[in-house]
Amino acid sequence: MRDILVTLICLGALPLAFKKPFVGLLFFSALAYMRLQDLAWGFARDMRWSFYVAIVTFAGYLMSKDKRPPMLNGRTLIMVLLVVVVGIGHLFLAEGREAADVSRFADYVKIIGVAIFTTAVVRTREQLRILIWVIAMCFAFYGVKAGVAGIVKLGDVYIKRGPGGMIEDNNDFALALAMSIPLLLHLGTSEKRAILSKGVMLMIPLTMIAVVLTRSRGGTLAMAFCMAILVWRSQRRLVGMTLVGLSAIAVLALAPKEYKERIYSIKDYQSEGSAASRLRAWAIAMRMVQANPVWGVGFGRFQQNYADYDPHPTPEVLAGEGVIVAHNSYLQIWAECGSIAFGLYLLLIGLSFWDIWTIRKQARRRYHSSWILSYCTMFEAALGTFVLGSVFLNRAHFDLIYHYVAIVMVFGHVARQEMENESRYPTRSRAGHRGELTLSPARGFGRTPGGSVRFRAPLIPQRGN
C-alpha cells in the first residue's frame, strides 16, 4: 500500500514539476531530505524518483518562457570550478587499485547542479520562505518521530542509521537534524498563526532529543555550537543561556548511560578507540596531501589508498579490512581532491559567511529588527553547525551544505533588492515620525496578515543643519 501511495504522489508531481519548475525543486528537495521513497518497502523504494523529477523539472525550466538564468557571481563560479577540478583529478590523475567511479562523480555533479539551479528558480522572498519551510519540515518529520519515541521509551532508543541517501549514516543524520534547528526556530518565531507557531517551536526540543538518540558526539557538539550562535545573536542572551543550560542538564540527567559515557570519553580522545582511530585517519590524510598536494588521490578514493599511506599497516588493512574514512570533511576533500579544490571549498563557505555578515551590517543600519536580520541569524547558525560538525564527519560532499550556499545566495539577492528599493522609495509611517519606515511583515505560511510592522531606521542628519 505504501508503494502505491508513494508512486501515485511521485507520478502526480511530475506534471506540476514540468509546469512550474519551482514546485519541481520543492518536490525534489522533499525526496532528497525526507526520503519519501524510503518510507516504502517494495518496488517504489528502488525507483529513481529524484532523477525523474529532476529531468522533468529541468525540461519544464528550459521550455518556460519567463525563465531566468542562474545567478552569476563568485560562489557560482567556485562551484563550477570545483566540478572541473575534482573531475580532472578523479577521472585522469587519480591513484588507486580500482578504476575511477564515474557514477560517484556524477552524483557530485548533480549536487552542484541542483544548487546552481536553485538560484535560477528561487528569486522572491515568498519562494525563499516556502523552500525553507519544505527543508525544515522534511527533517522535522524524522526529528519529531524519533523525539517522541525517545520520550515514550525514556531514552532507550538508539538511532543507528538515518532514513537513507546522504543521511543514512547516524552521524550524518545527526548533523542534518542539528542544521535544521535554526530553520525551525526562525519559522516558529516568525509565523503569524499561533497554533502553527507553537507546533513548530515544539519540534525543536524533539529534534534535539533525536540528535542525542543518534549517540553522535560530533552531532552533539555541532548542535551545542548551533545553540551558542542562536543565543549570542538573540536579544535576550541571559534567558537563552539559562534555557540552554537547563536543557543540557536535562539531557545529561535523562540520557542513557551509554550516551553519557560516549560524551565523557571526549576528554580521553588519545586513548578512546573511536577518537584514536580518527586521529590516525587524520594523520594518514595528511600523508596523502603531502604526496599529492595538487590533485589529491582522487574523489572518493581515500579508502582505496589507505593502506599505501599507513606507516604501520596491519594484515587486516592490507587485505582491505579495517580501513576507515577520513572522519574530517576538510582533510577528506584536501586528501582526495587536492589543494586547489580544498582552497575553493573553503572560499565557498567563507564567502557565504561574508555575505551573511555584510547583509546583517547593512540591515542593522536601517532596522532595530527585521526579517533580514532573522534570516542572517538562521543561516549563520546553520552554516556554523556544519563547519564545526564536519570537523568530525566525512561530509565534504554533503548535499545540504551546497544547497544552503545557494539559498544564501538567493537570500542575499532578495535582501539587497528590498533594502535598495526602500532606500530609493522610502515610505513614511502612518504616524509620520521622522526616521521610521513602514514595511510589510514576514508572511506566515499560507497567510498574508494585514497591517504593517514598523522598523526604526537611523536618523540621517541633513547637510548644512
What is shown here, in short?
This protein has 465 residues and is mostly helical. The chain is 65% helix and 2% strand.
Which descriptors apply to this entry?
single chain; 465 residues; mainly alpha; two-stranded antiparallel ribbon; 17 helices; disordered C terminus
Note the topology.
Layout lengths: L1 H18 L1 H13 L15 H15 L10 H18 L10 H20 L3 H28 L17 H21 L3 H20 L3 H17 L3 H18 L2 H8 L8 H19 L14 H4 L5 H4 L10 H36 L6 H19 L9 H26 L11 E4 L13 E4 L9
Antiparallel strand pairs: 1-2
Describe this structure in words.
Strands 1-2 form a two-stranded antiparallel ribbon. The protein is mainly alpha-helical and 465 residues long. 65% of the residues lie in helices and 2% in strands. Mean pLDDT is 82; it is low at 428-465. The longest helix is centred in the C-terminal third of the chain and has 36 residues, at 329-364. It is built from 17 helices and 2 strands. The radius of gyration is 23 Å and the shape is globular.
General form: globular
Question: How many beta-strand elements?
Answer: 2
Outline the biggest β-sheet: 2 strands, antiparallel
Structural class: mainly alpha
Mean pLDDT: 82
Number of discrete helical segments: 17
User: How far apart are the first and last residues' alpha carbons, in Å?
Assistant: 76 Å
Note the run of SSEs as H and E: HHHHHHHHHHHHHHHHHEE
Give the strand content.
under 5%
Question: Radius of gyration over alpha carbons?
Answer: 23 Å
Low-confidence stretches: 428-465
- Report the helical percentage: 55-70%
User: Going across the major beta sheet, what is the strand order?
Assistant: 1-2
